[in-house]
Design goal:
The structure holds three protein chains of three kinds. Chain A has one domain (52-342). Chain A contains eleven helices and no strands. Chain A has helices at 2-8, 19-28, 32-36, 40-78, 82-136, 140-181, 184-214, 225-237, 242-259, 263-298, 302-342. Chain A is elongated and about 70 Å long. Chain B has helices spanning 2-25, 29-62. Helix content of chain B is 91%, strand content 0%. In chain B, helix 1 packs antiparallel against helix 2 (29-62). Chain B starts with a helix and ends with a helix. Chain B has two helices and no strands. In chain C, helix 3 runs antiparallel to helix 4. The chains are: A mainly alpha, B mainly alpha, C mainly alpha. Chains in contact: A-C, B-C.
Chain lengths: 343, 64, 123
């Protein structure tokens, strides 16, 4: 699918694309009329499909977690005598940790796979893009500018993949062992870890928005009320990288208006479709963990509640990583098309 | 069955206690001790079956 | 209601027999406790069956492990209380210790799966 997107984003000019690109288009099999004909309802259907595919795993995990917590609550109530309480508590936490850890490892694997796909997409971009730029007779300045942007995003994506995702895994393992040992110092260390991780993500996001700000080719950014609302929503809702995403949104909205009705929009939507299921999954895991945490805290099992809180933070961080990736990929596509169009 | 067992054991205990007192009063202490022991053994046989039932039930219930 | 009645009857008999035949008193209380436990277990059977069916739905063996630990705890608590009642405190603590060891042994597979998922990831 990513190669399809790469192929689709080649014909940047609304006018007749060069002959080599025509050939590639015919090979890919999606014509301009098809893409222009994708109505909004079809898009919604596609999103609904992705959502239902994403739902099953977190929901089943949520059900298991709730069942487990209620069961351990019942068990600790029946054997309320002080002798057995510590024993039962540690065993319950052990089981819950095993359960959540396997689920989170799966999630990290999926995020890794998606990240690698987008990384391959970015890497394939650069030679294609320089070829198109030369074909379109672009000025040297624009070429250098976009080249720098692509290099920056490639660097960021490599950093994220090699550095942040293993760190997430270590964070989850650490959180689980912290809760099982029940040592207060380890819990503080886990919280510090999560703070460091979100700090790292914020730095990456800031770097990215810096690059965007430097290279704002879209003069006269369209800044209407809807855009402002969208920006505020994103900054508030998406943790950690919200500001970067909001900056990306304002650039992107202007771009979208230019691209309406062309193949480029279809490419961007397909890109979003590849990210949507995993992102939804992250959100649902966050929700499931929060609910389970409330239940655990309410039934008096502090350690299980601790695991839930730490893992919920972790799921949120995974979601932020995904958002960062997505906006990088999205923007590089849009940038290519804009500069290809504008010349 | 369950509450009957308790009544049976209690009744055996009371009978043994009464017999014990009678025999002690009439001076045959060794026979008194033998009666007590006999009563204990009878009750134990009744009880061991019940307790083994209990443990088998717990084992089956929790799949130990 | 049955439980309460049984318990009260047991108490009465135990007290009656305690001075003359302490052994019999102990046996009466033992019998009463056993009968109560059997009645409780019979009531719990459908609930545990339902929990076991739910545990089939979850992938890991955490839920069934927890249930087994519950069973071990109940059995050892019962035995140690009986020992204490007969005045054997040492035996009571020995039984309790054995129960806790067994419960921890039961939880060993879960610990193993946790550690193996750590290791699998770190590679």
């Amino acid at each position: 699918m990513i190669s399809l997107c790469a192929l689709l984003s080649l014909p940047a000019k609304a006018a007749e694309p060069p002959s080599e690109v025509q050939e590639i288009l015919e090979q890919s099999g999606v014509t301009g009329e098809d893409a222009a004909g994708w109505s909004f309802s079809q898009l919604l259907d596609g999103i609904g499909d992705a959502a239902s595919k994403a739902l099953d795993k977190p929901l089943s995990f949520g059900g298991q977690a709730l069942l487990y917590i209620s069961l351990s609550c019942v068990v600790s109530l029946t054997l309320g005598g002080g002798n057995w309480k510590g024993c039962i508590d540690s065993i319950a936490v052990l089981g819950f940790g095993a359960l959540s850890l396997s689920a989170m490892m799966d999630l990290i694997q999926e995020v890794n796979v998606t990240a690698q796909q987008s990384q391959a997409y970015l890497y394939n971009f650069a030679p294609v893009y320089s070829g198109i730029a030369m074909l379109g007779g672009q000025t040297a300045g624009a070429t250098a500018y976009s080249g720098m942007f692509l290099a920056m995003s490639a660097f960021l994506s490599t950093a994220i993949e090699k550095l942040l995702l293993p760190l997430m895994g270590i964070y989850f393992c650490f959180a689980a062992s912290a809760a099982v040992w029940g040592n207060a110092g380890i819990e503080d260390a886990a919280k510090l870890f999560s703070k460091c991780l979100s700090g790292l993500l914020k730095t990456a996001g800031m770097l990215f928005s810096l690059v965007l700000g430097l290279q704002n080719i879209l003069t006269g950014t369209v800044d209407n009320a809807a855009l402002k609302v969208g920006r505020n929503l994103i900054s508030g809702a998406i943790p950690v990288v919200g500001d970067a995403a909001a900056a990306a949104l304002s650039s992107a909205a202007a771009a979208v208006q230019l691209l309406k009705g062309s193949l480029a929009l279809a490419a961007v939507v397909v890109l979003g479709g590849s990210f949507m299921p995993i992102f939804l999954r992250c959100c649902l895991y966050y929700l499931a963990f929060s609910v389970a945490g409330i239940l655990a805290a309410g039934s008096g099992q502090k350690q299980c509640g601790q695991i839930c809180r730490l893992f919920a933070d972790g799921a949120r961080l995974c979601g932020s990583i995904l958002v960062l990736y997505f906006f990088m990929v999205f923007l590089s596509t849009v940038l290519l098309l804009i500069t290809g169009n504008g010349g | 069955m369950d509450i009957d067992l308790v009544f049976k054991i209690a009744a055996t205990g009371i009978i043994v206690a009464v017999l014990n007192q009678l025999l002690i009063r009439s001076g045959r202490e060794d026979q008194a001790m033998m009666t007590t022991l006999a009563g204990l053994i009878v009750v134990l046989t009744m009880l061991v079956r019940q307790i083994s039932d209990l443990f088998v039930l717990i084992k089956a219930l929790f799949n130990l | 209601m049955k439980f309460a009645a049984l318990a009260v009857v047991c108490c009465v008999f135990t007290l009656a027999l305690k001075k003359d035949q302490p052994a019999f008193a102990f046996l009466v209380s033992l019998c009463g406790a056993a009968c109560l436990m059997i009645m409780i277990a019979q009531q719990l059977e459908p609930l545990v069956g339902w929990l076991r069916a739910l545990a089939q739905y979850t992938k890991g063996q955490s839920v069934s492990c927890l249930l087994q630990v519950l069973g071990i705890a109940i059995a050892s608590q019962f035995a140690s209380d009986l020992c204490k009642e007969g005045g054997l405190n040492a035996a009571a603590s020995a039984v309790e210790l054995a129960g806790r060891m067994l419960a921890l042994l039961q939880a060993l597979p879960m610990l193993q799966s946790l550690v193996s998922s750590f290791l699998a990831f770190l590679q």
